[in-house]
Every structure is written in structure tokens, then in C-alpha cells.
Amino acid sequence: MLDINELFRDEFLVLEEARATAANTLLPADAYREELLVLTLRYQRLIRESYRLISRSDRAERELNRINEQLQLLATQLEYEATHDPLTAVFNRSAIINQISQALTQGNVALILLDIDHFKRINDDHGHPMGDKVICSLVARIRRAVPEMAAIGRVGGEEFTILLPNTRIEDAMITAGYIHASLNASPLDVLPGRLVTASIGVSLGLRGSDFESLYSAADVALYCAKNRGRNQVALHDAFFRDPSPAHSLKICST
To answer: For the packed helices 211-227 and 93-104, what is the interaxial angle rounded to 10 degrees?
Structure first.
């Protein structure tokens, strides 16, 4: 850090010369006037130099602010790209796993695992570009069917998870039912001649449990739904605490 005497060295020299001239009582009046004029001109030059320095400093500060804003935007973009699936814009596998694991430290977590039925056939019949459009259109429909606090993640090619933090299993089943009903209500806009359905597994993780157990239970329920003919919702019975209410959703036993 510059010492203030060093920073304003030239200004202090001018002031010292002015004081020395003023202290010299032997100089004639013309000498005082001439010295005053010289000092005035020198001080004007210093003021111009200071103005140029301040202007350069302001420009440098504006440029630094602009660069900082660009860096912040870049950091945000990189963070987004590192945590989101590039096709669907939902969370990618690692990001959704982290979110689920974090949610399990704070409360009970319901997990919906969804797999598009016969997706390979869609790719074979209509091509992979259409397959990508089907995935994006299906994700858009899922978004409309889940509550705002839900987090959607893509964990495989046509496999998705829906994280429902602090949610009862009954509410998770209702949400899964909404998704199922929405997909069966009408074909997707990108593929109007064909109904695209999904098999869905539901599980519940208690606070303090781990992602692997929660995901495994949902996966078992998902394959139960597939084995029963697909296009249905299955619930892992290990997480079903009150079997007495009537549900249209199937309970899958291991």
C-alpha cells in the first residue's frame, strides 16, 4: 500500500515551495507574483494528471466489474451444465443423487422411479431424433403433474426419478397416479399417433436412511410394474405403513 506522502509527492513539493516563497519576506512583489504564477501553472498540471489517473482508474474499475460479471455468469453456466441433463434440462444423475442424499438427512423422502415403456421400439420405428423429442415432451408433461417442490432427474436413457422431500407415501402415490393418468390421457404432441406410457415404481426413505436403499426399493417396485404388463404404478411394500386404505396403485412384494 502506497504511503500518502508518496502518493501526493508532487503536490506536497508545490505546497512546500509555496510556503518557502511566502516565508521569504525579502522578495519584491513582482517576484511573489511570478512565483505564484509558476506555482499555479504547476498545480494546474498536477490537477490534469490527477484527472487522467482518476479517469483511467474508473475505466479500469468498470472493466474489472464487467469481467467479474462475465466470470459470475460463466460460473453459473458451468455449474448448471455440470448438474443438468443437456437434453431435458432436468437434473443429471449425479446431481439428483446428491439432492436425494441431502434430503434424506432432513426428513422422510419419497422417490418415484419412471421408465418409458417400449422406448427402444419408438427409436426403431421413428428414429433417435424422434426418441429425443419424445423424452423432452414426456418430461414436460411430468413437470405439469408433479408438485412445485419436486425435483426431477434423469438417471438413464429413458429412466427418470422424481424426488419428493418431506412427503408421505400416500401423497407420493397420488403424484405417481397423476403422472400415470396424464400420460394415458392423450398422446404426446410430438408423436400424436402413438400413446407413450411409462412404468412407475414408488418407495419411501425414512430420515437418516441412504440413497442406495431408497433407490433399490423404487427399482424393485418399477420392475414389478414392468413384469405385470407395464403402464402402471407399483409401490414397494417395505415402505407401505398402512395397507388398509384402498388404492388403485399396486403393491409390489419382494
So the answer is: 120
